[in-house]
Structure prediction request, 538 residues.
Amino acid sequence: MWALRDRYALAGIGATEYRKASGRTILAQAVEACDRALADAGLPREAVDGIVSFQFRDSAPAMAVATAMGLPAAHHCVDYEAGGNGANLIILAAIAAIEAGLATNVLCFRAMNGRSGFRLGGGRDMVARGVSQYTAPFGWITYPQAMAMWCRRHMNRYGTTSEQLGRVAVDIRAHALDNPRAMMRTPLTLDDHQASRLIVDPFRIYDICLETDGACAVLVTSTERAKDLRKPPVLVTAGVYGGGPAQGDDLFDAMRWPDHSQNFLAHVGDELWRRAGLGPADVDIAEIYDCFTYSVLMALEGLGFCRPGEAAGFVEDGGIRRDGGRLPVNTHGGLLSEAYIHGLNHVCEAVEQLRGDAGPRQVEGAQVAVTTAGAMTCGSALVLRAA
Amino acid sequence: MMDDAFSALRPQPQPDPDSAPFWEGLAEGRLLLQQCIACARHRFPPAETCPHCRSAEAEWQPAAGTGRVYSWIVVRHPIPAEVFAAEVPYVVALIDLDEGVRIVSNLVGIEPEAVRDGMPVRVVFRDGGGRVLHAFRPEEGTAATAAGGKT
Prediction:
């Protein structure tokens, strides 16, 4: 098991409204989310000595947030350059900083004007240098185009269908209906999914996640300190970051990845369970990085909730539904229907569920959650437990 | 053979010291691949050293130009629209070349609906609005070409 198993905790969470056009600076939203996380934990701002964030050159730097919040002791301000792989990574980076004696109470945030400002789905740099010179000139530019290429492999290998992808979108949308923060609060049917526009075959518009203006934040501290704070701590039982060999030159490039019917989780899933001393059967809820419907299937298989090729059937059998499913997935609506705060909103949801604070969307008796971040060749995952 | 031209607005490859021979080869209508002299394995994308045996000794060799479709997508919503609106729907594919490396290219000369997993394909060359780009067509005699595809 992991040497740090259960020794660190998530002691507070906070979020802004999730909108299409915030009309605010990214910095202001980051500050609001961090303020809310501190208030949730009942920790005075003077006690914060670290901020860790991740961004795609599209956010407010951690030091700017510390400055705007007037934090007198926030010496450890670090920004990771990351995409979907980053959300659990910054939680682990905060733990590593505390364990190394660099900080004691660390705020982790992700903030973006992802719809009204820089749109991640809009495509990469049109100047095709580096590894992009081998992809962009051929019109392979956006993340939906990237992941659709992965999805086709799963379809060819296992017979996965567009209707099965649609089931993922429909079930996750149903969860969002009970979430006041969710951007999408009207029911979605399988017919709606099948009638929706093909963006990049095999993906229709409802296979693709939202774009969001907003921010969320999580306070990380030792379990010992967390016990003295306002809310019951949620323990970080284990975490992993990484992927397999040949992750590529950047997050988009997967030319040398051996098998696109499985992602990084097929390479690090066993290690996550070994570190946690738990297995898939012990998990009550999963908050899975659903940048696309297909990434849910790879996560279910990579983490061992299903055998390879069986996730689509698991979903069809109602397996991911909050009501009656074997493994409720994305109880908040995920990136597909709550908001795209790059996966850190999944961590916030797991915390609410494990505290029993999730109101009408609460999964009764939820004690163990898994969160994932990232969908392709590298990413991160956590096992969280109620104290 | 040169095939139909692409939009001049499309992203233009920016050659670097590792990739310059690759793009120069395409300009001459040749698909060149780096082959390691020490372990004889091909590699793509180009690099100074071999990721398999780490030798820095390599030579550029003409590829056979044949391979099989590993995966593909059909782009229907153009991004950016001003560049790709006239080209949709177009097919982007990962092609496993016979030399054991995988490259990204376009499939041409076939209806998007007719593309099949593992389909044998052969390289063609076309004007990418500046530089010559590779693309792939179904190998002559396969079902897709017999059925007739658009060019």
